[in-house]
Amino acid sequence: MTAGWTVWLEDAAHWFGLQGLDPYTLLTFVLMGVLTMVARSFFFIPEGEWTLPAWAQRGLNYAPIAALTAVVVPEVVLTQGRFISTLEDARLVAMAAGALYFFWRNGRGQAVLGTIVAGMAVYLPLHIGLGW
Amino acid sequence: MFWHAPYYRHPCFREGAIAQLGIAPGVAAWGLMTGVAMVKLGLGVTASVVMTLVVFAGSAQLAAIPPLLGGAPMWVVLVTAFCVNLRFVVFSAHLRRYMMHLPRWHRLTMGYLSGDLPYVLFVQRFPEPAQDEPGRLEQMAYLCALGSTNWATWLVFNLSGVLLAQWIPSSWGFGFAGVLALSGLLWSLADTRLRLISAAAAGVAAVLAVGLPLKLNILVAIAMAVALCLALEKHVDRVTEVEAL
């Protein structure tokens, strides 16, 4: 027996020209999209007067930089989940080059853009050329 | 609703779009390589296109593909995606005071668009929520510009990655531009002693906890860094005062 929503989804998928996608997978993706929205809006979904305690509010000032470092550092110092054993690593050199550019520019203008460009200008030759 | 004239005609909209365009090469390279990785993990092109259009969360997309293709129950796939997205729950707590004047659907749309980079750029530009109506409009125009520019960049390049996957070898490492974009933002946030401590603690914790599944090391690192900074606040303030004297 086929559930009603499956037929409906099949029709919808067909209409969009997506014959290759089964309704189950489509439903999974839609729910994942809803979860993206829920996660990013989590604390401002409910209405009403409610504020975080003052300490938590202050603590959140340290969250953005912590989140960035938590993503960046493992990407640079780990290979396949293990600590790198050599300094001949294109990622380290590129990260240093990017930082040099950023602090040379004192963070002004499009300094982040320059960090990306300077870093990649060092990274790509070392990585593709020398296999670092 | 969210894409309305008071936002995109506001001078701050332009400013936000320019700020987001400054890190667009990082977003683009990262989106491109995410698209390539999705197809190389074995997800079909149609499925990859739909996933890209609907889910809009790079690391959650990649994390959910293995259980999805492995035939895991749907709830496992969804829990996987949500866990990888947990850092956004923390960001939403931070954004709440900026957002509550908007109607709910409007907030949800803005939330959907507020990925990592728009969030960081936004709270950096506006450390405190506005107290009056013009100020709120200015802030929301800026956030809307960041979010929609980021969304458009991500979508275009993620889809390109999906469609061009067979011609782009992952071994070239273009995706590293995304890490460099994050590092540039990281340098720009490192303006107080406590934030430097937060960064150092989070970096160490994220490496030590890297064995955790679902990228939970990122969440652990944020929690540890914030807790450490809160514990050190008074002490570090005193040190800074002494130095200022």
What is the gist of this entry?
The complex is a heterodimer of chains A (132) and B (245). By secondary structure, chain A is mainly alpha-helical.
Index terms:
heterodimer; A: 132 residues; mainly alpha; two-stranded antiparallel ribbon; extended; B: 245 residues; 78% helix
Overall structural class of chain B, as computed from helix and strand content, comes to: mainly alpha
Largest sheet of chain B: none
Number of domains of chain A: 2
The most extensive interface, with participating residues per chain, is:
A-B, 75 and 93 residues
Name the helicity range of chain A.
55-70%
Largest sheet of chain A: 2 strands, antiparallel
* Anisotropy-based shape of chain B: globular
The Rg value of chain A, from CA coordinates, equals 23 Å
Strand order of the largest sheet of chain A: 1-2
Strand content of chain A: under 5%
pLDDT averaged over residues of chain A: 86
Q: Shape of chain A from CA axes?
A: extended
The ordered H/E elements of chain A are HHHHEEHH
- The counted number of beta strands of chain A is 2
Strand content of chain B: under 5%
Give the rounded overall mean pLDDT of chain B: 88
Q: Distance between the terminal alpha carbons of chain A, to the nearest Å?
A: 57 Å
Find the structural class of chain A using helix and strand composition.
mainly alpha
Q: Number of helical segments of chain B?
A: 13
